[in-house]
Fold:
Amino acid sequence: MSRIGFYPGSFDPVTLGHIDIIQRAAPLFDRLVIGVGVHHGKEPLFSDEERVAFLEAELGAISSATGTDIAVKTFDNLTVDAAKEAGARFIVRGLRDTDDFNYEMQMAGTNSAMEPTVETLFFAASPDVRHIASKFVRQIAAIGGDTTAFVPEDVARRIAEKLSSG
Ligand code: ADP
Structure:
């Protein structure tokens, strides 16, 4: 039986922190599905298509390096349902600080109450990317700042292109 993981998030946009989690989680699985949440009512800075494209640009290299099949999918339903649809028994999340911890523990408990067969696995943020948050990248991008210290090179270039073209 193949081991499948589901890593859900907004990825608005994908950062070096997310990439670090994907690189570290991938070797544990035969297949890792990155779930891009596209829930109604939550207005992202980057469109669903952009968030998926930013991720897809990074995943080929990680897939080759780890031998894990990595896919990106959008989802607008409950995380546990999206995980089950992906065939995953594991949800992957990252922990940066106590804010993440408190929120993530509640979410893992809620998900487990709804679907006890799906287990949440936490990765402690790596020290060199622990400060990185999509929220700050969005703020920097919105006022035309340089995002290269926080997101993959290709993503920083695409962000700059998007903002310069209005
Ligand atoms: P959400 O809107 O679901 O919080 P995010 O895209 O902000 O989605 O984050 C997805 C997951 O990645 C969360 O578990 C978050 O804690 C984790 N994460 C985000 N940034 C980092 C980082 N710099 N280091 C480690 N984990 C991170």
Observations:
- The first strand starts at residue 4 and ends at 9.
- The first helix runs from residue 16 to 25.
- The chain has one domain: 4-127.
